[in-house]
Amino acid sequence: MEHALTWFPLLGTFIWLAWAGWNEYQKVQTYEAWATGAERSKYDIRAVLAQRGTTLTWGKPTRQGPIDLTSVALENIDTITLHINGAPAPANTFVKRGQRIELALIDRQGTTHRVPFIEFPMAQQWKKALQESLQALKSASS
Question: So what's the pLDDT on residue 102?
Fold first, then answer.
């Protein structure tokens, strides 16, 4: 009887892990359907992000699909910066685990839109790609 009672927490842990894996799998499946047709997209546990033409859309991933979606037109963006824990990230920054990484998009009205990231290298890649898209838009309109 004692041995059975010691195994119950382990059984509960395995059941919880199975549920968590299934839950995350469902989120990824709905993200893939949502991101179809996007030129560039990303998924992590904090946010989904997709670029379709000159429109960026991001939100929070759920099993039913992304929620709290926000969109912004790239032509309305003035500045793109990376922030760590709310402060601009200096060049050659080393990011420790657990720090809050955000891509800050500042539009012409001065509003800052923040897109959360888990991985700093991915945030850097997005910043570079968006700056190139923004530069191409500016040179095309000139």
Answer: 92
